[in-house]
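Entry for the shared binder. Reason: the reviewer on the internal report wants the predicted structure included alongside the sequence.
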Amino acid sequence: MIDRDEASAVLSDIKDMVARVRQSRIYDFASQFIVVAGGFVIAGNLATYVAPRYATYIWVAVNVLTVLISFAIGLAGRRQTGVNAFDSRVLVAFLLFYGFGLLCTGVLGHFGSREIGTFWPTYFMLFYCIAGLWFGRAFIFIGLGITVLTLIGYFFITSDIFLLWMAVVNGGGLIVSGLWMRWGE
């Protein structure tokens, strides 16, 4: 027979274990998404570097593919775990996110290509940092790290190689951080 203090300690241990498993599942889903999104970002920056006049089409395709892969990863996760990681709320969140970004860049701001190339990554990383407040510090480190490197590029990297910088910093940073979340955290 266990006393009240021992029972409380066991329940506390169970609660800690549940929290660790939950965070592990979140990091597993997020790391898959982040690595694939990082690949799309690298491809988008390189394609824009090679064919800058098609940048709008390239980035629409990158963003649509990112949403679709998020849906596919969520669907695969649901089959595997029974938990729906991509529901209508996630789709609405994506639509609101992109809608506000387009409002800022296309209506309110008169951004050049360099400013747009800086705005979108830092805007994405703001939400990584916010997610980190709930889901773990890895998101905060990712968000702040990529934001700082993006701003270094904006202020110190010449325009002729800025997109290459962003391919490495943003796309490569996402891939490295996604792998870190998967195996290093």
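Summary line for the report: The chain has a mean pLDDT of 87.
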